[in-house]
Amino acid sequence: MVQIDLTKLTLVGAGESLRRGDWRATELVEAHLSAITERNPSLNAYLEVFAAEARTRAAALDEKKQRGETLPPLAGLSLAIKDNILIKGHLASAGSRLLTPYRAAYDATVIKKLKAAGAIFLGRTNMDEFAMGSSTETSAFGPTKNPHDETRVPGGSSGGSAAAVAANLALAALGSDTGGSIRQPAAFCGVVGLKPTYGAVSRFGLLALASSLDQIGPFTKTVADAELLFNAIRGHDPLDSTSVSFSGFQPPASSLQIGVPWHFFQDNLSSDVLNNFKQALKRLEQAGHIVREIDLPNIKYALACYYVLMPAEASANLARYDGLRYGYHESGQDLLGDYLRTRGQGFGLEVRRRIMLGTYVLSAGYYDAYYGQAKTVAGLIQTELGRAFADVDAIATPTTPSVAFKLGEKVADPLQMYLADIFTVPANIAGLPAISVPSGKADSGLPLGLQLLAASGREDILFALGKDYEHARPLS
Amino acid sequence: MIKGEEVAKLASLARLELSPEELIKVGHDLSAILDYVSELREVGNASVTTSPNLELTAPGNSKLGLVVTPAVAPPPTNVWREDTPTVSEATREELLAAAPATQDDYFKVKKILG
After folding, report:
1. What are the pLDDT digits (tens) for A364-394?
2. Does B57 lie at the interface with A, CB-CB under 8 angstroms?
3. Which one of A318, A356, A425 would you mutate to disrupt binding with B, by most B Cβ within 10 Å of its Cβ?
4. What is the pTM of this model?
5. Cα-flanking dihedrals φ and ψ of residue A217, to 5°?
6. ipTM for the complex?
7. Which is nearest to A393 in space by CA: B73, B52, B72, B62?
8. Does A97 touch chain B (CB under 8 A)?
9. Staple partner for A261: which of A57, A207, A296, A327, CB 3.0–4.6 Å?
10. Residue B81 burial by CB count (10 A; 0-12/13-18/19+): exposed, middle or buried?
């Protein structure tokens, strides 16, 4: 009998073969647990593996199948979950000492949905502390390594989830994206990453970074898998009043218009990244789509907007971490001392830096100049992108300005690190869906990604284009 | 751009302890970042349209006919719900168990007043 490596399956493939009875859920889980034991010590993608629970769930599903019962739609599909998504009873640390230890008292809505669908959680993955970072180097538990080159970062903040999928340590994973934290690591690790439309997926049970920008989304090996996982987690949730069920769109045409804002990047990208992007566009043209130049004059301000709005919201969202009701606690001389020491020791420097930045831009005397102005410019960018989508069906950019950088390369200069998000933040600012699809390798042999944005609620356009791109891609 | 005392004041406002070295480093970082984000001031007195601007358009190359597409985002609508209590998934015991100090059904903290 031919031995198939079950960790190389896709969600769609694994689902079909489990239903056919080619193998059991237990075998799928064991294959992943072995792979994790072998590779995780060097990659540090997983902070914790839920081996016992995964085995129990798999066994229960296998018994269900034995009895001839219908299996739920995602039965047995083995997923990795980012450490900032709550799974009741499990530790959740958001990559931080400040939530060590904290055991989730409830399930995030996405987790409830996935449990009901029969999915199996293999463990929780490493991330930049409180999702603040683009390299997974600010994690209190050490960085994750890029599976393609372990001297390099996997990207961030969802580096653990990206690395897990890239190294076949999970069939797929969930991450969160506030300024690119799904798409950028997806590009660096050579996997698919989707940031849904703001509101498409419930944020209930996601430890908040910036409430007007955060979204949970999938990391997968294929676009069809991203569509499957997105459909499983999407939908209005009464527990998240910003969530919306999008529907009622006409299916995408077979030939779509793709706008490219060349002015935004063509002069400041290395030639191999630019060529990779141009090749990716050629493949979309081969598939019958039309690539046109568009002008987005204010998009270059998106990063500055982001680094005002996100820290402002983070400073408010992280005020709850005071050590009085959960997590880490350090005692001071008085209550104020408790706060200062708990937060001072529990939060890493990047987190404290961003909280202080947020405090500054929200403070009296600076509020209008920074926060007020950033809100105005964000509105302009939203309008500008909205108008673009009256003209084109999708917008394409490279996902990142470069391949994965070396560990330690950008830690000393926060601003250099922030520039890694330059192409990803506009989608968060405007609340639009965006996907990164692996677009081959740079000269160095490291992965790159093609980013596509669509109008609000139009993940279907992203999936259609992504699949066309995958099918047009030459075999290599 | 941002002075030493301002950095210390920010840390105190945000209830964060920083070492003297950290205060200096963060002061430099914040100055550099604030410098960068100040480019937002270049964006003149632009007026932002938030009212819906519904246009009949044919999105892209759609051959499926005209579709009504908002050219700009529709105005936000408020989301209401009834103010009725429901049973939480987390029990009081579970929530209290996470705290460093409790007494009866209360979180115990150092003196707030006086």
Report:
1. 999 999 999 999 999 999 999 999 999 999 9
2. yes
3. A356
4. 0.94
5. -155, 170
6. 0.92
7. B62
8. no
9. A296
10. exposed
